[in-house]
Prior knowledge:
The protein is mainly alpha-helical. The chain has 2 domains: 10-185, no CATH class; 194-383, no CATH class. The protein is 57% helix and 0% strand.
Amino acid sequence: MSRPEHQGSPPQAARRSAAANSNDRELSSSAENDNEPTNLRVSDPQEDDDTGSYDEFIELLAVMGRHKHAKGASPNVVARYEKYKDAGRWLPRGISPVCDVKSMLTVGITLFDIPEEDWELTGELGKYEYDEILKFVKQYNAFQAMCPVITAQLALFENKPDAIADLAEFLESKGGKARTDDVQKVKDSCLKYLPELGRSDIQNPPDNLAKELRGFENLATGRLLTPRSMRDVFDDNPTQFCLKARLGERAFDADDFATFLYPEHHYDAGDPSEHLLMSPYLLANFRAMYQGKKSASTGQGESSSKANAGRPVLFKMWKVQTVTPEYICYCAFILRFGLTSQRFWDENDGEHIGKQFYNNLMLLFEDEAWTKKTLAWWNKEIFGKMTHELAPNGNPVQRRNGPSMLELIKIRRLERARAASATPALTSRGPSEQIEGAADARDDEAQETTAHEGDQGSHSGEEEDEGEGGGSGDGDGDGGAH
């Protein structure tokens, strides 16, 4: 996308000037009287507690520089430190593991809450392509929604590149530790969910297989790393295929999507996007990462009972209710490393570049129809109740055909209720009226019976004649003639 022409934005310039003057006054006040610092506030009164004074801001940056803990800091600083720390741990999972955090903060803080037509893309922002600007603004908006404290302290960060750099370094540090936790989790558990192929020549390895023996050192993990377009070639001679991969005679880059990203039995060579990322194996690891290991096998998230005391699972901690492309692509990004033979974390694997792999996956979600279909499947599997289509091993989940037992009970009761309502009932009159009406009905019935018996005696001969003549009531004339 080409960069639009901007004439210089009065709103942006005015906001920068106001922020600079406000910070200058804060510095002056602090220097003149260290015991009575002037608090710098933003307009939203709900954010006052997260803004703090300039002295607290400087203390916060100093605490962040230690990277370990906020021990010894004032309570307000500790509270803000924890919020930034949690946001830093969420950042690679919810935004991007390959995010340029410093650029995201620089662009986002400068342009936050300013209409696009008023952007002034000069100075520090002039070095970025317009597509990059749009990406960083989108990422920053997601970040500040997760971390409102940065919005409260926006004016404190404006025109302070060193402060932004300190925050970026802190967030990257916390994000790196979160990624390390996820890598360890996936490395320890990803072999538990390998699909059963039913082939004697490709046996699943033990769950604790050493990392250096994975990848193309093992047929099962090598098969999952093989581009799906080449899997049939792999299946023809798995041993030879893995040998050539180890020798470098077969190389794969991030533009070809691996087998583990697809269901076992669904692949369209003419349209490789079909069923891409709808992988039961990826799904099981996604559940283990975000909802707990129990969820990977049962499809149900772990509870917060005393038996599971400790840090809650990620989706509960973040109160996530919707699967996003970022969560899916991050899991695939980490899972691929879990399958390789690399002992230590490296997002790159030979010609397979991790950043390119992640970005390629995210590019898939630029197609609206594909995105809608894919996210509907994921949200159904993760948050749907009794709607999972596939078991972790890739086999379809078998459920009842037709109505449930409860539905049948409801149907039968409804039928009985309708039948009862169709039967006349003497419920519209009072009790005394009903008794009198019943007595009158019995008297009328007795009189009708007596009269009917008399009629039968007087007409019995006529009935016999009609019967012998074979006529009907309409044939009296014919009977008389006969």
